[in-house]
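Students often ask why we bother predicting the structure of a whole assembly rather than each chain alone. The short answer is interfaces. A chain on its own may look different once its partners are present, and contacts between molecules only exist in the joint model. In this exercise we take two input lines together and write out one structure for the complete complex. Read the inputs first and try to guess which parts will touch.
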Amino acid sequence: MATPLPNPPPQGGRERTERGAIVDTLKVRDANDVEQAVRAAIASDQPLEIIGHGSKRLIGQPMATNALLDLSALNAVTSYEPNELIITVQAGAPLADVKSLIDSRNQHFAFEPVDTTLLMGTPGGGTVGGMIGAGLAGPRRIQAGGARDHLLGAHAVSGFGDGFKAGGRVVKNVTGYDLCKLLAGSWGTLAVMTEVTLKVMPRPESGRTLVLRGLSDVIANRAMTTALGSPFDVSGAAHIPNSVFRDAGGGLGEFLGDLGSPREAVTLLRLEGITASAAHRAAALAKVLSPFGTAEILEDAASVAIWSSVREVEPFAAKGALGAWPVWRIVCPPACGGALGEALARDTGGDVIYDWGGGLIWAALPPKADAQAALVRPRVDAVGGHAMLLRASDQVRRDVDVFHPPKAGVAALSERVRLGFDPKSILNRGRMSRGSAA
Amino acid sequence: MTIMMPPPDQVVLDRREAIVAALRAIVPGEGVIDSPAEMLPYESDGLMAYRQPPMVVVLPDTTEQVSQILKYCLAQGIKVVPRGSGTSLSGGALPLADAVLLGLGKFKRIREIDFDNRVVVTEPGVTNLAISQAVAHAGFYYAPDPSSQIACSIGGNVAENSGGVHCLKYGMTTNNVLGCEIVLMSGEILRIGGKSAESGGYDLMGIITGSEGLLGVITEVTVRILQRPETARALMVGFAEVEAAGECVARIIGAGIIPGGMEMMDKPAIHAAEAFVHAGYPLDVEALLIIELDGPGVEVDELIRRVEAIAQGCGSTTCQISNSETERNLFWAGRKAAFPAVGRISPDYLCMDGTIPRGALPQALARIRELSKKYDLRVANVFHAGDGNLHPLILYDANQPGEMERAEAFGADILRACVELGGVLTGEHGVGIEKRDLMGEMFSEIDLNQQQRLKCAFDAQGLLNPGKVFPTLHRCAELGRMHVHGGKLAFPEIPRF
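Now the answer. The structure tokens for the assembled complex follow.
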């Protein structure tokens, strides 16, 4: 069922950026336009900033670009085949529209893409291309994988100005190198995706969330480890320390605000599936977790709402009480999370929220010239994790490595890989590495 | 041999003795094999129609040795073919006459089991099944389960991005591997990823997985382990028409049910399997589905009911439901033994591995039937029906002149049909040499050039496993050159710059 939307006429224009500079914009109509634009950019050495809705423009190293390649007009759904569990859409398709389309067939993107609107305070819900380029997966990553696990195929234009195809339109495919894995999470620095094929999955019929109260970060981490080591197929494991409820205060939405009203830490464990199964597993897991306290059980709508707050990092919302603080996204071995996060919060006076059973820490830390990078990075290195400075002022992002600097060998290999896609650094120049911003 | 391999480098062959001596200096004792008789087991992998003795076999047992071997080979311009257990069905580990065959069989140790982080850190020569066995006492297992799991190594699984009957629900190797230690052709040792859910920066683990030994030599792997589901039960459903079985598969998925495994066999495969293992398969059906549901008992019972109703709605003629582990294993026994079962009824067989959209199953089967007539060769079909992965087994006799060539042409036509129907050349066995020359059916030259530029980032001299995956070899300098369109770089009609 193809529902192509009419293409608007080609538009060029000028626009004022967040940083106040005036830049050229090029609104492309099709993949051919993208090829032409990239080739022209190569010829004139004009690096391009690639945008859809611009919802994630404030994420990454400030770029050395002075022209915009706007993909928002590439917004058609090419095909949607629910029985094949795939959907093919143009990269500029609005994520919200695509989500509601697949929702109408009781399907979803199982990796729960993170909508950063609340966290970044930027307008626009984002596009499918942006979702893949950022590769930010929500709570269900522990069970269903990330964006990289759901991108089956793509058409893209490389920094050579060549349109190429990666992957295919079936779920099982090992033909050639899996270039899709590289495109997911590459923040537009390798190629401009013009069309993507994504895996969709049946939406769970029902959900239950166990709520444990009053646990310290380290004990909560242990409770989550126990839950994830059980056979009950936990699809979300998060912990919100009590200080978050105190510091974020009235900025919290209805569900999270209510949940934290006694201002106690809450540990959340989600079970999804057919109703009988979710209910059975919730009860069984509550029994296994009884040494950690008595669990309350939230059902369906309340369960869905609470995970939306966790996924979108609501306590650290840009418009909330902690909106002025820089926010780190730290990924680490899950069993290390509690100790790492507790120490970070204690030593900086900041706040942390745990997802992925401790494997993902969102940290809002009091402002400092380096956003506390000198403290955060060595500690994260020590446990074999990585820390991305997701939210910070323009100036701080200029001075600090936004993405965790890899070890020399991996950094050099990554750079060779990038140059294999974009030898002239035309695409989102400098977004992922301070070194390549020149 | 109908596939051309890169011509041997006579300069390298002339220096064989010196090369063997240099390798012995790196790997002392019995780790270097150069006598023709002892090299015999290495001259082929699971694609046994192709054989080629290597120049020399080296079996290091430390990462440092691997690094020194590769460094030496790079300096001397010597090709290297990595090998795990040698079970590849696409010729990924086929030796080259002028290459060092680098076997990882001595990397047999599981280095760490970390239940809290739900990972196992293992050397690449450990078998797939041994990982599950090592964690079984705590209720864990490693999910991807290729049929060769008793023998195939985890390093080979990473190289091939192996699947198995349960990957419909639990994913392929790429969805279950978190990190590795890899040695590049330069000898540089890198750690990619680790125990975290994802690594920062580009997803290098994602690109290494399934790279068929062309990017580096893996010396350690970190895999995710899962708790075994509480219970699993299987249905065995027969249909009088293949189309009805295909429809049943589509409706199950359409109803939002993702079974642990969903396999289909056609009549010749059913008969061969039944004659071999006596699993009680119905012999009067055209297609048999084995559908496994796993999870808590309450969920499995409910889903069994739903699937049974769907099957009836699609006109199933027989339906058995397992009531014990013994019975469930019996249902699977025939499917898991399908390849050897077919081996009993034909001197040789060729196993194909295309993937198609599920909905195209009946069309694909009809095409295979036509081609079977055209080439006058029998075919038995087994499929991972849930994910549209076909394994047609083409029966032939290599002793009959011309029959192998006919079987290969038949196989190539099946794969072309898969691509035409919207699918791909290989679902889980890899390209290797087997499908190398068909890559153009699926990818344009530009697509393939982009893939080969990635190879250049890892192995600029093209010394690791050359002649596999890509139909043509390019120099990296040539691939890195900016394309010039029509004599000059094109300008867009929209004059913004």
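Check your guess against this: Residues 403-420 of chain B form the longest helix (18 residues).
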